[in-house]
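Deliverable D4.2, example record:
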Amino acid sequence: MMLPYSLLDLAPINQGGSVAQALNNSRRMAVVAEQCAYQRVWLAEHHGMQGVASSATALVIGHIASATKNIRVGSGGIMLPNHSPLVIAEQFGTLEALYPGRIDIGLGRAPGSDMATARALRRDLNSPVDDYPQSIRELQGFLGPSKGEAAIHAVPGQNSNIPLWLLGSSLYSAQLAASMGLPYSFASHFAPDQLYDALSIYRHHFKPSKQSQSPYVSAGLMAVVAQSDEQAQYLFTSVQQQFIKMRRGVNQAFSAPVDSIVGLCSEAERLMINHTLQYALVGSQATVKAKLAQFLAATQVDEIIVSMPIFDIEARLKSVELFAECMT
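Output generated by the structure prediction step:
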């Protein structure tokens, strides 16, 4: 297939595990991803979730970058409404200085948390949507060439020219990425409904920019690859349980797999899971390769970024390796 493939990591905290274990697992996974020629590893910003250890995203990116040598490391994403553009420029400018030519900034506009937690992050929840594009432009300014007349300078940050991506699960983000001439990553791993419309809008309305002369789009997929379809389906029950909990408003650590989710959820919940995760690549290498070929033929994306929601770290590392073999 010879398409760039990358890894999305939420640093899952397992039931019975710890934050330290989760972060060490993420470090191990990034090392294996680099050995298997993944293009980049991105960490996702979420807050107040018992099963996610990557809330201090810039710190975790540094943790991953220090364990690797060449693979790009970045955010998938940083939720810009939670932060001032200057803070992001300083944090990622520092990372770029420490790990030159390896840092990405993927940006989103959701809070990455519940509303109570979002309020505790001390950003204005009532700001208009127009603030998001303006914040992106401010961030670009802080990361760009130093302007002597400017009242505010991002140090570190200025002259780093770290590439920006826009992330999204809606048509709004596709339109914005196109109008700003930025690469775009669509969250088809949990929001499949608007995938094709978003791709069409982005490509049709793309305007070249200093960063990107042509549209470049990646798509998010969940992937659980094992020696057999049965083993992969067993491992996949962890993330299925997680989606059941989210639907019920239950905030718990990442679940161990079970033989079957039948009996753990209602028929409506099962249908919801199947719909939401319809693009998940679950199975043996042969099964995953066939599903992936169909997805790539239908979407014509430029890059794939996969999340590996697997409880056991050894099985997760094996899935990382097996998926890479599917891409070559």
